[in-house]
Amino acid sequence: MTGMLPRGAGLGVRRGLLPALRQADGSLLDFMEVTPDNWIGTAGPATRQLRELAERFPFLAHGLSLSLGGPDPLDTAFIAQLKDFLDSHRVRGYSEHLSYCSADGHLYDLMPIPFTQEAVQHTAARIREVQERLGRRIAIENVSYYAAPFRDLDESTFINAVLAEADCDLLLDVNNVYVNSINHGYDPQAFIRSLPAARVAYLHMAGHMTADKTSEQDEDLRIDTHGSPVCDPVWDLLAFTYRHTGVKPTLLERDFNYPPIAELYAEVAQIRTLQQTAQQELSGAA
User: Fold this and answer.
1) How far apart are CA 249 and CA 32, in angstroms?
2) 167 or 221, which is more confident?
3) Among 159, 195, 1, 197, which residue's Cα sits nearest to residue 92?
4) Mean per-residue pLDDT for 214-223?
5) Beta strands, E only, the chain
6) Is 135 left (phi over 0), alpha (psi -120 to 50) or beta?
7) Facing residues of 203 across strands?
8) How many whole angstroms separate alpha carbon 162 and alpha carbon 106?
9) What digits encode the pLDDT tens for the residues 241-259?
10) Contact by Cβ (8 Å): 93, 201
């Protein structure tokens, strides 16, 4: 998977951003990321516009509904549709959340998997099956969570165990690390250092809110929304992450509260600037 990935900085495709993204070029974005779940089985002008973008830009894909840690059987019919989508849009890398979203029916949310050895084995087996059916390695994303039920392992140990057991890659969401570090009281830099740099395929960046639905920094609670600009501590954590993982492809996610597109491109440019600085530092240290 990692050998096919684009370099640089990208932006997630959302229907509300399609008109502006159609005007983008390589001076603004190096790649885009799409959520196949929102497009499989669709038709019409937006679907045609998505295919046009896939012909102009390298595409990554990030899933929502495989429910990798869930108790229900894997949806093999959906996985077959997913494979067709990835192949037809020439998607260079696919990722899914290390979570679940179904249990005797769809839950319409991404739920935290219990941090247990049994869950490691269960989830890893499902990831291996997905990889076999798709004919490609996938990356799993560390998720934000607000409760940790049945916790026998810490989060880092759980993620590392799933990566090793499944032999898959990691999509490292830097904002989720920061959000969880506030909500669960750990050192975000130590957490990132605990993850295997060699398995990190690419990175996500996003904004979050506090309990009163503002982007102001309060003491003890963050809510992962993807609806705000990236804040300074998360930018700092991205710079630190590059020092641990090396410079990886990095995507900006924005799901709602869309600002003028120039503001999103400015955040993508900030990612590029941090990548260039990190590359210079790493080259100088070599």
Assistant:
1) 11
2) 167
3) 1
4) 63
5) 9-12, 31-34, 59-62, 91-97, 100-102, 106-111, 139-141, 169-173, 200-205, 208-210, 222-224, 250-252
6) left
7) 172, 250
8) 23
9) 999 999 999 999 998 889 9
10) yes
First CA to last CA distance, the chain: 26
**Environment class of residue 70 by beta-carbon count within 10 Å: exposed (0-12), middle (13-18) or buried (19+)?**
buried
Query: Does pLDDT of 2 surpass 50?
Result: no
Structure tokens belonging to residue 127: 């990831």
Stretch 67-91: mean pLDDT: 96
Which pLDDT score is estimated for 177? 96
Q: Which residue ranges make up each domain of the chain? A: 2-285
Pairing of strands 9-12, 250-252: parallel
Task: Read off the DSSP letter of residue 280.
Answer: H
**Per-residue pLDDT at 146:** 81
User: Token pair for residue 65?
Assistant: 């509904």
**Assigned token pair, 78:** 């959906």
Residue 211 pLDDT: 53
Residue type, 171: L
CA distances from 237 to 62, 95, 258 (A): 22, 22, 24
Beta carbons within 8 Å of 274's beta carbon, 6+ residues apart: 235, 238, 239, 242
Does residue 128 surpass a pLDDT of 80?
yes
Please give the CATH superfamily to which domain 2-285 belongs.
Divalent-metal-dependent TIM barrel enzymes (3.20.20.150)
